[in-house]
Design goal:
220 residues
Length: 220
C-alpha cells in the first residue's frame, strides 16, 4: 500500500488473492488525507466493476459510482463523479478524450492490467492516452506468453522506462523455446523427483513431460 501511495506511478504484481484491490483502495485513502485527491478512476473488466464497488463500500466511507449506460449518460457521470468512478476497458476506447478533459482523474487504477499487454490493440492504445498524476497498475500475470507484454504494461506507467520497443526486444527478448533448452537440466531436476515418487525411478526426457512442462515457470 505504501509502495503505491508514495511511488506515485507503480506496478503491483502480487499473485491473485493477496489483496491488490484493498491495497489500491487504501493507497487512495492515504493520498486523499495527505494530498487532497478527489477523483479516482478505476478501470477493470466489466465483470469486476461490481466487486470493486463492494470492496470500496466495505473498506471506506467514500462514495463510488459505476460508469454505465449510453454515451450521453456516461458523459454526465464524468461531469458529476463520485470519489471512485469505476469504468470498463471497453468504455475507455470511446470515452478517452472526455475522461481526460471532463473527469480529469487524480488517480487511475488499472485492474487486470494484462488487458493492455498487446501494445497494438485499440484498448491498449486508448488506455495509454489517459492522463493522471498518480497511476496504480494491478496484475497477477504481468508476463503470460512474451516478454514484451511487460513492456506494454509499463509503458502506461512510464513510456520512457525501457526506451523504444526495438531496443527492448534487442536487450531483453528471448524466445521461450531457447529458455527451455538452456535450462532443461534444471527443469528435469524439478520434475523428475515428483514423478519418481508417483511412478518409481525411471529415465525421462523433456519431450516426455507433456503438460508438466508448464512448470518451466518455476525455473524462469
Amino acid at each position: 500500500m505504501l509502495h503505491l501511495a508514495f511511488t506515485g506511478r507503480a506496478l503491483l504484481a502480487d499473485e491473485m488473492g493477496l489483496g491488490k484491490t484493498v491495497q489500491a483502495i487504501a493507497a487512495c485513502e492515504l493520498l486523499r488525507q495527505i494530498t487532497g485527491i478527489r477523483r479516482i478512476l478505476v478501470i477493470s473488466p466489466a465483470s469486476l466493476k461490481g466487486e470493486w464497488e463492494e470492496q470500496i463500500t466495505k473498506f471506506t466511507a467514500l462514495p463510488s459510482l459505476i460508469i454505465q449506460g449510453p454515451r450521453a449518460r456516461r458523459l454526465r457521470q464524468y461531469d458529476q463523479p463520485a470519489f471512485f468512478s469505476v469504468a470498463s476497458y471497453e468504455q475507455i476506447r470511446s470515452d478517452v478524450e472526455e475522461i481526460n478533459t471532463i473527469l480529469a482523474p487524480d488517480v487511475i487504477i488499472l485492474d487486470e492490467a494484462q488487458r493492455i499487454k498487446n501494445w497494438q490493440t485499440k484498448t491498449a492504445v486508448s488506455v495509454k492516452r489517459l492522463k493522471s498524476p498518480y497511476t496504480f497498475v494491478l496484475t497477477g500475470t504481468p508476463v503470460e506468453n512474451r516478454i514484451d507484454e511487460i513492456y506494454s504494461i509499463t509503458q502506461f506507467l512510464d513510456p520512457y522506462l525501457f526506451g523504444p520497443l526495438f531496443r527492448f526486444n534487442r536487450d531483453y527478448y528471448q524466445p521461450i523455446e531457447i529458455l527451455v533448452a538452456d535450462r532443461a537440466p534444471s527443469l528435469v531436476k524439478l520434475i523428475v523427483v515428483p514423478i519418481e515418487a508417483e511412478e518409481g525411478p525411471k529415465k525421462i526426457g523433456v519431450e516426455e513431460l507433456g503438460d508438466r512442462v508448464n512448470l518451466v515457470d518455476a525455473v524462469l
